[in-house]
Write a structure and sequence with these properties.
With about 160 residues, the chain is an all-alpha fold. It has five helices and two strands. It has one domain: Up-down Bundle (Four Helix Bundle (Hemerythrin (Met), subunit A)). β1 (about 155) and β2 form a beta hairpin.
Length: about 160
Amino acid sequence: MLALRSLFFTIVIPGTVVVLIPYLIVSRDSIGIIGLWTPLAVVSLAVMVVGATILIRCIWDFAAKGRGTLAPIDPPTQLVVQGLFRYVRNPMYLGVLMLLLGETAFFESIALLQYTLAWFVAVHLVVVLYEEPSLRRRFGEPYQRYCRLVYRWLPTRPGGRVV
């Protein structure tokens, strides 16, 4: 059942953020795709693949180690500090950011860049004003220790040194 819930919320939440909304933005602007094998296209696609891989790995860790999903209404019941979460507190959001930046470059869209920047500001505010206080209340000292060792957005080595 957890696998189905994870799949559903993956389709709904990141699917909306990185597929539906960018599609609506790009199709509204009537811009085309850059040549498929240009250097910019290849780099853009590579960034998107890395972002998707990060996102999928984090969703897997939420289910396997945290026993929950990425949805705020069905969060992990265990604090997840393994996998990519050892290096940065919000790898899932960074994966989505990479996907959006890759799409922005691939479609060469200023509107998509504006959306990406607005999305990141909104996510940062949600993290600071809602997620972190909620996690502090739920997990207490283990989460506080984790925050002291691992940065919010900047990847660190396990133990707290910047990568």
